[in-house]
Amino acid sequence: MQHAPASGTPVVSDVIVVGRGANGCAAALGLAQAGLRVTLVGPESPPEPADWDPRIYALSPASRALLERLRVWPALDASRMAAIQRMRVFPDSRPDAPELGFSAHEAGVPALAWVLEGRQLTRALHQAVGFSGLTLRTAQVLQARASPQAAEVELDDGTCLRAKLLVAADGAGSPVRAMLGMPVSERAYPQRAVVANFACARGHADEAWQWFGDHGVLALLPLPGERCSIVWSAPEPLADELLSLSTEGFALRVAEAAQGVLGALCPLGPARAFPLRLVRAERLVAPRALLLGDAAHAVHPLAGQGLNLGFGDVAELLSVIAGREPFRDLGDHLLLRRYERARREPVLAMAFATDGLQRLFDASSAASLPAALQPLRALRETGWRMVAGTPWLRRRLIRHAVS
Predict the structure, then answer these.
(1) Distance between CA 220 and CA 126 in Å, rounded?
(2) Which ranges in 264-332 belong to alpha helices (H)?
(3) What is the predicted pLDDT for the residue at 6?
(4) Tens digit of pLDDT for each residue in 22-75?
(5) Which residues span the domain enclosing 98?
(6) How many structural domains does the chain have?
(7) Phi, psi at residue 124, to the nearest 5°?
(8) What is the C-alpha separation between 300 and 309, in angstroms, rounded?
(9) Distance (Å, whole) CA 118 – CA 231
(10) DSSP for 232-271?
């Protein structure tokens, strides 16, 4: 990894990637491994949590395949990962609620997902970036421009960068997206994601659980040993209430909402909360620029697919670049349109599914459902039972989730 000197003379590379999160690092690493001159831009990483990181990811088999291709997967600490072998989902918290179950055996995969801490993933990616030969700029972007001639980025350390292609992977609020004038639609959900980790009185048997209901959406994910992580997408008043509780009081509320499936819970750290919103860029590409990860799309976390969608973007970008014709420039608009077309359908499908489920099961969002979908609220348990009792439909859902 090279740290380029600051100067008024443009620093030229093939690709500029803005964003040092998981998506940006994966994209920069893959492009560098493809032999391109890459500059990765972003601020210093925040300090790592002292113990178990409450920010948890559930990586799909497709995301694991990308990390193996990037030679990052072997660097992850296997002792701090857990595989999900079975997922059990309920439409509400009644004891007799119909269960919708998914299993890795049914899907024909080693696991439905692998659960790991955010810091484990970013640490492994940062280490791989350090050995990749790409140029790292620890700086903030002041201005970004892209035209048919070139992409340029000005940094707060006085450096001007120039490249054939600019990749914006700088998050859902993407300053680079705004600087490029790429329009976006955005809607805040009336919920916050409350996350925390616990030690469990009972083993989880590599199972994950999820409950929909008036309390929002509660997901319980396995961690190594007798530990678990929760993501509670709670309505705003409930989120405030949960965050006001002591750690012990919060653990009792979680155990109660989870119907005691793992027995008593012991907090492994304080709870944290994140705002939730639906974000969709109207275009993923512009002259010599493209959006990737949360800069292109952000979805409700009820399916745990946000990072997997971003890694899908990375995999498609690497495929498009690798398959380009010898005469075609990296920033050729026709080339970038291949990426945009390939990602539009899976992103829209996931956004539609997660947004529809959130509004279907959340009473505060019911009024925003289109009139044609209002009757579905009354039929949601009937539909749930139909899916739960139809192996073909379950297999279709599983294939979509693990791809």
Answers:
(1) 28
(2) 306-322
(3) 46
(4) 999 999 999 999 999 999 999 887 777 668 899 999 999 999 999 999 999 999
(5) 11-355
(6) 1
(7) -65, -40
(8) 12
(9) 14
(10) EEEEHHHHHHHHHS-HHHHHHHHHHHTTTTT-SEEESS--
